[in-house]
């Protein structure tokens, strides 16, 4: 039986990658910013975040802890962005406080190397830290409270995005999965701050989602044949 994976051309078409509203990231964090102000509305918030990016433009997409957000105001040392009710519902942003460190990455250009994996910035939900174990200069982290519908998107040596960081999955258990954080990742991202029971944003591999969606569609379409 052969299954044709439709829409795979998405990955290779510059017109789609550069189209407005189709920003992509790689999970290679540039640096950490800090939340300098939070304005809370009835069901949304506005964040002000310090940054080393000094040439951001209004309307530009930026990945903040794995969440694709739009720059609504900017200066040489900071930018602002608005978070919708849906974003607050699906991510840890609702728990942010002034002074919190956040991972930052600009959207990739067609000429950029894809150093991590394809990240959309559309977070699938929040996971909790089960264990944090030092192994020499490395740190092994286990994540649990995985939505049952997402288990098939996890595979050993596959990719996962945690707080905007592209990571390789070490092992997969029915209740949790683990990753190994290397010293470089610990130095450049906020993952070195993780503690047991902390929450993190997770985005599962886009290619795995494509495969799962197309196979599900194929199986549904061919029921009874």
What is the succession of H and E elements? HEEEEEHEEEEEEHEH
At the first level of CATH, what is the class of the largest domain?
Answer: Mainly Beta
Using DSSP, what is the number of strands?
Answer: 12
Named CATH architecture of the largest domain = Beta Barrel
Q: Which overall shape is indicated by the principal axes computed on the Cα atoms? A: globular
CATH fold group of the largest domain = Elongation Factor Tu (Ef-tu), domain 3
Number of helices: 4
Fraction of residues in H or I helices: 10-25%
Our Rg estimate from Cα atoms comes to 18 Å
Portion in strands: 35-45%
- Unreliable spans are 1-20
Which structural class best describes the helix and strand composition?
Answer: mainly beta
Describe the structure.
The protein is mainly beta. It folds into 2 domains: 22-106, Elongation Factor Tu (Ef-tu), domain 3, CATH 2.40.30; 125-215, Elongation Factor Tu (Ef-tu), domain 3, CATH 2.40.30. Helices cover 14% and strands 36% of the residues. It has 4 helices and 12 strands, in the order αβββββαββββββαβα. The chain has helices at 14-17, 85-90, 183-188, 206-221; strands spanning 31-40, 45-50, 61-64, 67-74, 78-83, 101-106, 125-135, 138-144, 159-162, 165-172, 176-181, 199-204. It has a 6-stranded antiparallel beta barrel. A 6-stranded antiparallel β-barrel has the order 7-8-11-10-9-12. A hairpin with a 3-residue loop joins β4 (67-74) and β5. It is globular and about 55 Å long. The model is unreliable at 1-20 (pLDDT under 50).
């Amino acid at each position: 039986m052969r299954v044709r994976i439709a829409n795979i051309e998405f990955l290779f078409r510059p017109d789609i990658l550069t189209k407005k509203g189709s920003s992509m990231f790689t999970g290679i964090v540039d640096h950490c910013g800090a939340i300098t102000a939070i304005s809370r509305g009835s069901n949304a918030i506005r964040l002000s975040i310090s940054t080393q990016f000094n040439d951001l433009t209004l309307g530009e997409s930026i990945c903040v802890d794995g969440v694709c957000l739009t720059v609504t105001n900017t200066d040489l040392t900071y930018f602002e962005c608005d978070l919708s009710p849906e974003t607050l519902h699906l991510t840890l942003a609702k728990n942010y406080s002034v002074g919190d460190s956040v991972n930052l990455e600009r959207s990739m250009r067609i000429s950029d190397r894809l150093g991590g994996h394809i990240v959309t910035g559309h977070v699938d939900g929040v996971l909790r830290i089960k264990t944090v174990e030092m192994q020499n200069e490395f740190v092994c982290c286990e994540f649990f409270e995985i939505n049952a519908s997402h288990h098939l998107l996890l595979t050993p040596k596959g990719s996962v995005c945690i707080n905007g960081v592209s990571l390789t999955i070490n092992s997969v258990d029915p209740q949790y999965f683990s990753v190994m954080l290397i010293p470089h990742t610990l130095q450049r991202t906020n993952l070195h701050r993780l503690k047991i029971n902390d929450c993190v944003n997770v985005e599962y591999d886009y290619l795995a989602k494509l495969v799962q969606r197309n196979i599900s569609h194929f199986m549904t379409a061919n029921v009874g044949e």
